[in-house]
Amino acid sequence: MMMKVLDAGGIPPLTDGQRAADADNPEGYFEFERVKQLPKGDTAWLPAAQGKAVKVIAALVPHLPLEYTYRIIFMRRSMPEILASQRQMLNRRGEDSKAIDDETLAQLYDKHILQVERWMRRWPNVIHVNVNYNETLKDPFSVVTQINHFLGGRLDPIRSLQAIDPTLHRQRASA
User: Fold this and answer.
1) Does the residue 89 lie in any domain?
2) Which of 6, 30, 89, 98 has its CA 20 to 30 A from that of 14?
3) What is the pLDDT of residues 53-112, one digit of tens each?
4) Is 173 part of a structural domain of the chain?
């Protein structure tokens, strides 16, 4: 959702179109495959990313080279919804969605997120804002306003708001 919001608001995404839309992400993935090579040191693509939105999963954020300045919108979601979404995706792929119990997975995920947040706070050239997925759906105006402020007014907020589609919120779970 966030990549779609940024794109609609006038910040072009760095994507390669390699991963097509599917049942898990009917609007597409807005991904750039080379991002996955950050742990192997592939950073030659970063100059082409300047001024663009790049989707980087939390696990890869600490692999970003520190010679650049980053503005990271760190999207958070309720743990029950993360778990439900992951189970659904694994089931669609025919993989074992019960290989690890939800409580253990939630503890591992929370620990990982804390490590990533500590890394982001450690570096003065890594500026970040936490954005809650569910709050974005409940109060999109406030969240888009916050993001626009964070990005120095670079967004067209009306177009960004139009990109938020609550019908795509399929994996719902109580917190």
Assistant:
1) yes
2) 89
3) 999 999 999 999 999 999 999 999 888 888 887 777 777 777 776 777 888 888 988 999
4) no
